[in-house]
Amino acid sequence: MIYWIVFLFLEYILLLTFTSSKKTGARTFILFLIILLAVYFAGFRDCLGMDYEGYRNNCERDRLLSDASWLIDEPLYELVRNFCATTQFSAVIFFIVFAALTSVPTLIVYSKYENFFLAGFVYFTYTGLYLFSFNIVRQFASAGLLVLAAYYLLKDDKKGKLIFVALVLLSALFHKSALFFLPVMFLGTKSYNPHLIVILVVLSFILPVTQIMGLGRIVEVLNMMDYDIYIDYSTSTISKYSLTNLYLHIMMIPFLFRAKEVASLKNGNMYVFAIKMYAICLMCNNLAANDVAIAYRIAIMFSMYIPLVFSILPIIIGNRQLGNVLIIVPLLILFFAIGLSNPLVVPDKMLPLNSIWDAVYQKFQ
């Protein structure tokens, strides 16, 4: 646990320093340090994450690039994996690359909006984001690129839309679930309807919508049969009554009464868009608890906007101190009470820098 405490403390200090600095050069350097530390901690973690051993083994198993079959299934993921398998680099380089894809675009985009401290705090502390990326490596890398894609989409011009589509397609080469993000380009960013959000979230809480949405057919059409396990998978471990899910629902309430204020903020179109993504995330979490894990997988790409929504809470409720407390205190409690109770995400040590060059290093001694 000491590694997480030190890591979070350093990130919080850097975020505060970034926020208090007025010089562009200094802010750029501090942002670089924030990102570097995030990538280092995720890249050099030792055996952390439910799929860590599986990815490590894949990186040590060679698949020749002359075999064209690797082009069919998420080729950029296969390219990175193949690089590790056919060189003297260890699997550490794989985790560094995917940690960078997750955190670099995400933190750069967050830094462009108000209250980067709160946005960064939520990203590092909410257990469903940075910490969870240790478990779902490829999809979070894809989600990081989608954050950047949405940034260009919100420029609201033809070039921005083309870049958005290109980045979504690029991210799908790491994880095909990114294709579910394409329809968001048709969502308006001028305002949102609180009544519609309430209706949809409530319906997602009570309806068995797997059949209504036809998720199995969607998976089949998109040639995503690697994920058909999530259609039939029992999701008893995903609870819509969990403290985290309950907290996320409660935190949506202030925004239901302040739709006009959100739209009128500087960069209001981003916050309107982020709230819509937040609402979709809530719905997907509820659907996952009702039906299938694939909905929870889809929720990941939308959960990346929770930090941006939370960052404006102090402004929306008109009380900065109270807004900060409502975010910082519960998330810290949830992080240490729930997140670090899982031995799969608590580091016993960090790997040395030279582990990048170990062809096969011993992690499970």
Query: What overall form do the CA principal axes indicate?
Result: globular
Number of strands: 0
Which value, in Å, is the CA radius of gyration? 20 Å
Q: How widely separated are the two ends?
A: 20 Å
Helices, by number, come to 19
Proportion of beta-strand residues: under 5%
Query: What fraction, in percent, of the residue positions are helical?
Result: 55-70%
Structure report:
With 365 residues, this protein is mainly α. It has 19 helices and no strands. The model is unreliable at 228-238 and 359-365 (pLDDT under 50).
Topology:
Elements: H1 2-20, H2 24-43, H3 52-59, H4 75-86, H5 92-111, H6 116-125, H7 137-153, H8 158-172, H9 194-206, H10 209-213, H11 215-221, H12 229-232, H13 243-256, H14 259-264, H15 268-290, H16 293-303, H17 306-311, H18 313-317, H19 320-337
Helix pairs in contact: 1-2, 1-6, 2-5, 5-7, 6-19, 7-8, 7-16, 9-15, 13-15, 15-16
Outline of the structure:
This protein has 365 residues and is mostly helical.
Keywords for this entry:
365 residues; mainly alpha; disordered C terminus
